[in-house]
Amino acid sequence: MPLITKLAGPRRGLAGGLALGAAAFGAAFGLRWLLGIEGVPFATFFLAIFVTAVFAGWRPAAAVLAASAVAAWYFFLPPYHSFELAWPQGAIALGLFVLVAGGQIGLIEILHAAAAQLVTARQDIEKLLAHERHLYHELQHRVANSIQSLASILSIQSARITDMADAEAALAEAVQRLHGVATVHRRLHDPELGGEQLAEALDALTLDLLRSVGRDDIAVQVLVQAPPLGHNPATLVAMIVAEAVMNSVKHGFAGRPAGRLAIALRHLGGELCLTVRDDGHGLSGATQDRPRLGTTIMDGFAQRLGGSFRLENVPDGGACVIVNFPSSATRMDGPR
Predict the structure, then answer these.
(1) In 3-state terms, what secondary structure has residue 82?
(2) What is the pTM of this model?
(3) For 49, 63, 150, 206, which has the most beta carbons within 10 A of its beta carbon?
(4) Which domains does the chain have, with CATH numbers?
(5) CA Rg, the chain, in Å?
(6) Each residue of 45-79: pLDDT tens digit?
(7) Would strands 218-225 and 271-278 be described as parallel, antiparallel, or unpaired?
């Protein structure tokens, strides 16, 4: 295992460290005694101090340093078996040993701290990479879902085409809906979107859609009073809102110079209620008898949320899209 990993790894407790230091000191003393080399009284003790500092920390290493200095002073510095020191050679040798060994301990502590920081930084990078991979896969999943939804919409439209005029209208609607999907993904690019962020995103999404069709004269109000949504339900809610907004522009506000849209997501009892209300013309009898493509699409998105969809007239004028779905959908982050 690399030394840097050893340095960054956990150290022994103080008792275990002292035991390791005692063993290292004993081995160093025994080896020095057996070698009996003149002129190098501290040779084996440096290794004992190094090993203790690496595996046990500076406190046990300092204890080994102190024991080594005393042992070398008494046994291996002339005059031998005495605490007298030859002046100045003995004092200088002992002082240099303490200075160099102490510097060795300090350097190992610095390296240990730096290695621990490197390991922490590597772990943070690995977490960040894992998060980025999660976001990438989530983006792929959301784009695939949107493409599948568009394919279903085009399939429904193609079944309704009877002449060239229908084909042109279907193509124009397909372009409009593709633009809507792109707008939704641009505004809901964060897979962790929810809470107040969702209100801001829905407001910006609605204004983007209105500007794309030249309707800057429609006032928008957005209210979110619900727990944070997972990224999948947030996307489905945004798709319903986008479809409802374009439906209001095309039918509710047709021929009118201005209007109001009120979008709300509320937590009511054990479920969530999404409403998109306009003050436009309201629903005609034909619309109620034969649902348009837009209502079919919104109904499909509501079913994917595990909820229900309805479109009804408002007593004081206008129409309202109402989608009720279980609050458990806030945790719906897997494939749908």
Answers:
(1) coil
(2) 0.54
(3) 49
(4) 3-125 (no CATH), 161-331 (3.30.565.10)
(5) 38
(6) 998 999 998 888 888 999 999 999 999 888 888 88
(7) unpaired
